[in-house]
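[job 0412] stage=complex_fold ligand=iron/sulfur cluster status=START
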Amino acid sequence: MPVDASPAAADRLRITEIFYSLQGESLTAGCPTVFIRLTGCPLRCGYCDTDYAFQGGEWMGLPEILDCVAGYRPRYVTVTGGEPLAQRNCLTLLRALCDAGYTVSLETSGALTVEAVDPRVVKVMDLKTPGSGEVERNRYENLDALSRNDQVKFVICDREDYQWARELIARYRLDGVCEILFSPSHGQQDPAQLAEWILDDRLPVRLQLQLHKQLWGNERGR
Ligand code: SF4
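[job 0412] stage=complex_fold status=DONE, emitting structure tokens
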């Protein structure tokens, strides 16, 4: 009779990859970090560069994931996707990583509620711009769940996105809520032009370039 060696459904997650690299974005850009990429995403942003995470992956039990992370002896761990919160057990994983003593961040689309995320986790939450094609998916009530430790990210595709983001920052007074990151959409928005717009408007945001792409291009697992 075959033995079912699969992890118990109660604590397993579908994982696309776990890898160790330099953080490419956010306030810890440049810091060695372990990334846990969860499989699956209900959105389809036009600029998505991780569509290989939409399907596939492997089921892993929580202890196995934690063992894998511990092998790298990291300070920073980032849970990403796909959209990690699309898997129910993501919340358990985040809590377990915090309990293990890591500095944990969550990269999320902003389309699913972040309310139940462990407060020790740094939330790096997108606000999807019109240029993403998924602007109607934003859950603005998520802004109430953000604190000074968190970050919101706008991926800017063009001037229209920039103006939209600028108006949103003013409407929700986002600079009083958390850090604001502006990322030029790779190959779509000229970073230098975006920098000029930010300076002209004295916008209270941080321009970020995807460090991992400068170092390694689109190489997977980097
Ligand atoms: S939310 Fe992220 S993973 Fe999902 S489609 Fe958009 S960019 Fe890709």
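The radius of gyration is 18 Å.
[job 0412] exit 0
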